[in-house]
Amino acid sequence: MLQLIHFFLSQGFQVLFGTTAIKNDNSIDLACLGVEEIRIELNNSSFDKLLQKMNPTIVLFDRFMTEEQFGWRISEFCPETMKVLDTEDLHCLRKVRQEALQKGIKFSRDKLLISDIAKREIASIYRCDISLIISTFEMKLLEEVFKVDENLLYHLPFFFNKISEVSRKSWKTYKERFHFVSIGNFLHSPNLDATKYLKQEVWNRIRQKLPEVELHIYGAYPSQQVLGFHNPNKGIYIHGYTENANKVIENARILLAPLRFGAGIKGKLTRAMLNGTPSVTSSIGAEGMHGDLPWNGFIEDCLDDFVEKSVLLYSNQKIWEEAQLNGIHIINQLYDRDKIEVKFLDTLHQIFENLEQGRYQNFTGQMLHHHSLKSSKYMSKWIEEKNKK
């Protein structure tokens, strides 16, 4: 979302950020970027008046839940406004994978078709003029499993400046880096599960082979269980939130991300590449992130193989340096900011210029506007009236 805000600002857009969330100490100060922040309320017609005053060219929804709450208001009061859904990642995919893991069964695409979250998420995609899909895997899934028209989808991964030779030379070398690192917000269930798996299954096996090596775990909002993992005698250090994720990653020799469920592409893994830090992750961790290019380390799902490759990557300088180079190629070829931004801006212009025709061709979207948003609309109005009492 922050990358998208920067993108629109760089193209000369005036950006207003509306949210129902309450700011906290970790909130980004958008005002310093020139972004006006607006506090909005759920189920409140004050938003309608705000919309009419702003009359936005584009509305960008942060995930399908936001579109469910506010999409019908956009359609009613600003029908000419282009609606863009930022899916972040497919929530239904992450949820069904999590349920499969908890039940000890194998994940199946067929289970997505009976998921209530999938029904809501796909409906939201149809109601928008374009949906931003972060992963090539999820693009394929939407087209093959849910049969979503490719004209409603746009693949938009993270985008970064290319890693230059100057940047590369500023990185610490293999011999200047020490220990393993793991990082991720603990309110995000895949990160919490991966940390538990690291502590309970992975780390003791690595430690047996590398007895002097440490594991440093960072992430906001650690639970009491996670804080209880802190055990210097066994080389585990729980640090909680860090203000400088890049620094802790660039100082580590390896980033570990044994994700067992999830979706989208993983910021921790692109951040590792941007700091020259190889990683060991799972197939879900690396999913949709590297195309046909070799990974920035190793991709392993089997516990024994994960441990073996973590030790190998940590101990072998030649393999480590090759992995680091792979990460540079992935960033420079697949996440090049200049190429991605030019193509994205052109696509937005095309959609906006053909907005009426695009909506006319999207009959499913029209149908969902007529039926499902009517229910959302009147439920919201009922709640608003109830709140007045």
What's the helix and strand layout?
Elements: H1 2-10, E1 16-19, E2 36-39, H2 46-54, E3 58-62, H3 64-77, E4 82-86, H4 91-103, H5 116-127, E5 130-133, H6 136-144, E6 153-155, H7 165-170, E7 180-183, H8 189-209, E8 215-218, H9 224-227, E9 236-240, H10 245-251, E10 254-257, H11 267-274, E11 279-281, H12 283-286, E12 297-299, H13 303-315, H14 317-334, H15 337-353, H16 355-361, H17 363-388
Parallel strand pairs: 1-2, 3-4, 4-5, 5-6, 7-8, 7-10, 8-9, 10-11, 11-12
Helix pairs in contact: 3-5, 3-17, 4-5, 5-17, 8-13, 11-14, 13-14
Features:
six-stranded parallel sheet; 12 strands; Rossmann fold; single chain; alpha/beta; 389 residues; 17 helices; four-stranded parallel sheet
Structural notes for this entry:
The protein has 389 residues and is α/β, with parallel strands linked by helices. It has two domains: 2-159 and 337-388, Rossmann fold (3-Layer(aba) Sandwich), CATH 3.40.50; 165-334, Rossmann fold. Helices cover 51% and strands 12% of the residues. The protein contains 17 helices and twelve strands. The strands form three sheets. Strands 9-8-7-10-11-12 form a six-stranded parallel sheet, with helices on both faces. Strands 3-4-5-6 form a four-stranded parallel sheet. Strands 1-2 form a two-stranded parallel ribbon. Helix 12 links the parallel strand 11 and strand 12. The two termini are 37 Å apart.
Count of spatially separate domains: 2
Q: Any idea of the CATH class of the largest domain? A: Alpha Beta
The CATH topology name of the largest domain reads Rossmann fold
Total beta-strand segments: 12
Structural class given helices, strands, pairing?
alpha/beta
Termini Cα gap: 37 Å
Strand content: 5-15%
Catalogue the unreliable spans.
Answer: none
Helical fraction equals 40-55%
Indicate the overall shape. Answer: globular
On the 0 to 100 scale, the average pLDDT is 93
CATH architecture assignment name of the largest domain: 3-Layer(aba) Sandwich
Number of helices: 17
Succession of helices and strands: HEEHEHEHHEHEHEHEHEHEHEHEHHHHH
